[in-house]
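Researcher: Batch entry, complex prediction.
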Amino acid sequence: MNEQLKFLVVDDFSTMRRIVKNLLNDLGYKNVEEADDGATALPMLKGGDFDFIITDWNMPTLPGLGLLKAVRADPKLARLPVLMVTAEAKREQIVEAAQAGVSGYIIKPFTAQTLSEKLAKILGQPAKA
Amino acid sequence: MAAESDLKSEWGELFDALSTAFASGDRQAFIQTLDRLGEAREHALYRDLRELSTDLRVALEQFRLDSRLATLAGKDVPDARVRLDHALKITEEGAHRTLDLVERSCPLAERIARQAAALSEPLRSVRAGLLDGTTHPTSVNELLSQAEEFLAVAQRESDLVRGNLTEVLMAQSSQDLSGQIIRGVIVLVGEVERTLAHLSALAGNDSTKTPVPHAPTPSAGSGFGPAIPGLTTGAVGEQNDVDALLADLGM
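Model: Structure tokens for the complex:
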């Protein structure tokens, strides 16, 4: 596994950003940056060499779905894996995210194991216990 | 008498002029005064009509507010109470989960510390015996077995503590979930406040106030927030349901 992968964690709650960042660190990924909204994430993504996006859905300015669509519409970013980690649990939303090209979908509250499994699946690696 | 004097002050001048022109047979003055009378009458009619339309607008506004207030009082506020109950439950569960894990971890850390402390005396005595030649090989062997046993316990229990710390980390996600719910209720309270303020302004006939903007309605695109048991419809239960749904979609 490539520990140098650069992650962007997007969530308007700082507690959740810290949780995801700590979990990523536990899994060996130390290169993690944070953004508090889709609107602040997008310029970071365009300006930085990120490898993976983990995003919330419900955010004040640019929600995660909008961020996902913007990423998929940008030729430079289109192929980035986007893992949605959200409390949004309606079927229609999960279907919409899938249609917009989400790479994985985790509903909150989630476990460390779930995050590890989904990451591994998206990155094509065996999951860490 | 008041009505009579109103009538005189409103129409007296024109009526006198009309009657003077009629008596003197001044046809031109008579016609001109008659025209002025007609204009004045029209003006009064327009004024009444304007007043009526203002009253109507205020009444409609009041009605719109009343119906919004009915929705707020009948549905949104009771729903908010359910939401807040759920937020309370989430934070309580999160706090208990954290406390459980701390209570479970403390004895593990204490046992490691206690066993480490228990090793120091035999270590010191064996080292001293080695220096003055009194230590028998069986004592060394015993000490090493004891140390091995301790290392195994320390490793196993440190792993347990480490796992518990990860769980403590995850338990903090209750802040995010309850925070999302509380934010939604804050938006609603803001709308209730503005609606009531506007209603009271209307009651004081202060119709200059701008209408109350509705709080933005949550949508699929912007997000609904955490699913609330008993309120949210069409939501999946847990991660397995999401995985199954995505699998159905070919992911």
